[in-house]
Amino acid sequence: MEHVLQTLYKQKRTELQTQLGLKNIHEVPKLEKIVINCSVGSQGERKQAVEDAVNEVSLITGQKPIVTKSKKAIANFKLREGENVGVKVTLRGPKMYDFMMRLVRTAIPRIRDFRGVAPRSFDGRGNYTLGVTDQSIFPEIELDKIKRSLGFDITFVTSTNSDDHAREMLRALGMPFRTRTAQPKKEGEAAA
Fold first, then answer.
1. Residue 127 CB: number of other CB atoms within 10 A?
2. Looking at domain 4-172, which CATH architecture does it have?
3. pLDDT beyond 60 at 186
4. Contacts 24+ apart (CB under 8 A), 103-111
5. Which of 41, 100, 102, 189 is deepest in the core (most CB within 10 A)?
6. Please, which residues have CB within 8 angstroms of residue 187's CB and are 6 or more apart in sequence?
């Protein structure tokens, strides 16, 4: 069974093709995967923090994450090589579309004073990374059970190398990018 967001993408694909000036329908960018990365940082009880991160990321994504380990020892952070420092999950297919729909329609609108996500957070190869500072925006997380604040990096990996094409594809899927409003020029100021 196809997801609602996947059906929406298929409906908007020809519209995107003409908007981006692409000759072939297969050149239209598509969402390949979503990677959610959560680092517990230098928490005092790192082992418990990683367990909490595993539980909360599992609730949010519907998929069990893998535990990431440190690559080298850093004495200042009391970190040994190979110690658990975070969790990561890669979503594809229906789970990916389900997560994106819940993120765009439910979680992001719950952010206080939200004006849109930054339209310039692309990596130059068509991938977009969004930072979420608090897990409480997700409805799956019960506020009274939060032990510590966890932040996430959510990376949308696309099939294109063009940031502009990827931005238009994500916008078509409902990503609320911040629009720049024209600031009135002050007297004597040159046009930018």
1. 19
2. 2-Layer Sandwich (3.30)
3. no
4. 103/154, 104/173, 104/174, 104/175, 104/176, 105/174, 106/138, 106/139, 107/132, 107/137, 107/138, 107/139, 108/137, 108/176, 109/176, 110/137, 110/139, 111/137
5. 100
6. none
Q: How far apart are CA 68 and CA 83, in angstroms?
A: 8
Average pLDDT value for the chain: 84
128 neighbors 167 (Cβ within 8 angstroms): yes
CA distance 175 to 116: 9
b or e along 165-187 (b: 16 or more beta carbons within 10 Å of the residue's beta carbon)?
A: bbbbbbebbebebeeeeeeeeee
pLDDT digits (tens, 9 = 90+) for 157-179: 999 999 999 999 999 998 998 88
Task: Give whole-number Cα distances, 153 to 90, 127, 133, in Å.
Answer: 12, 12, 9
| Between 112 and 44, residue with greater pLDDT | 112
Q: Which residue has the tokens 């959560």?
A: 38
- The DSSP call for residue 111 is S
Domain assignments of the chain as residue spans, ordered by start:
4-172
